[in-house]
Amino acid sequence: MRTIEQHRDDIAELLSPVLARAADEVESVSLDEIVADGSAGQGFRILGRDVVSPVDLPRFDNSQMDGFALRHTDHGAVLRVVSAIAAGVVPQELAEGTTAPIMTGARMPIGADAVVPVESVGPGRFPEALTLDEIVAPEVREGTFVRRVGSDLRAGEPLAHAGDAVTPGLLGALAAASVRTVQVRRRPRVLIVSTGSELSGGDPGAGADVALIGDANGVSLRAAFTQVGVDARAVMVADDPVALVDALRRELETATDLVVTTGGISMGAFEVVREALELRGLTVTTVAMQPGGPQAYGPVDLDTATVPVVAFPGNPVSALISFEVFLRPIFAAACGLDPARPGSLVEAADAADSPVGKHQIRRGVVSDGVVRFVGGASSHLIAHYAEATHLVHVPVGVDRVEPGDTLTVWRIR
Ligand SMILES: Nc1nc2c(c(=O)[nH]1)N[C@H]1C(S)=C(S)[C@@H](COP(=O)(O)OP(=O)(O)OC[C@H]3O[C@@H](n4cnc5c(N)ncnc54)[C@H](O)[C@@H]3O)O[C@H]1N2
Ligand code: MOO
Question: Hey, is 181 helix, strand or coil?
């Protein structure tokens, strides 16, 4: 039986050309598209090219306060109050012996070099202070409350670099510089294939004459991939090796970097992934973990094309945990997220047994530094998985957990 680390390394090696290819291909997207597809919040788009700022940021000297623009050298002089300067207008030059009421963000008039906040003048607030005819200029240093042109970034300087994640902050900076489209790396494209003749696309119903089930893995993995910036689509295929190969050939006519299958890799009589793909290059193996023991991977030759395949067990919890352990770290890193789930050490609230020689991953809810297991160890318990906030690790060598034992948990939401 191989370790989690060995299997993770083999999958990383299989996927490294996939990620390199996607990163090499650059496409142009608008800032609006990035916001609309949700990638500014998760699964960030990654810049494929440097972005140089076409303008100074700020674009012009402007006021940091609502107040009065004046010359600092006028300290103690009586200044005549001229027309107010609102944000969004180009002001007239400030004549000698005058001061202009100015609002936050408004362009500084030529001649003025400082702003006195309205609180320190006359009635102390606008609009009342607009009625003043004159003020006595208080003492201020040159540049006080003036936001200097280019103090954030100079025109021609790099605003962001190739490889940077397009975060909300970067979107703001790009928009401030009036950059409306950016060149980003193409997203990796994954085809998820849920195998099993028991899977139903509709509502299988319930009762004594029902043996069909809903496809949990197609949608859960698609969502999980989306969170790490992958363009994922999902299909279902029955337990028929010929149908599986046909479906893969057909689906690969649409550009695909990686195929992820679920089900059909263990010891049963109808193991479709194993039967169809082992002879074509898939390595079927067992990893010392539970859930997620049966695993397979490799470049698969379909005659018409060769594609990297990662095959997960069919149980819905096994499929998601396999994703968390083997694929999420790789794709998270590729889209600018931390490859590791946030981890912490907590105390077990309950006792639990763990299989000898395997790394067990239980589901739990953490509160006040204590983890309560949600459901048992079985990998069909998808509703319990949905309730969990954390994955709970029981490492190889620990066969029994007692209340109060310290365990590592990963926060998954
Ligand atoms: N004799 C043995 N039997 C099994 C072993 C073993 O070592 N010896 N391993 C068990 C373990 S552990 C797992 S995990 C499963 C893995 O089996 P497969 O990957 O071949 O998956 P299937 O048999 O196709 O399905 C398992 C289970 O999951 C349900 N399933 C499958 N796909 C979906 C889906 N898309 N949505 C919802 N549920 C799905 C399927 O109906 C089965 O109940 O093998 C054990 N058996
Ligand atoms: O390895 Mo299976 O994934 O326990 O349930």
Answer: strand
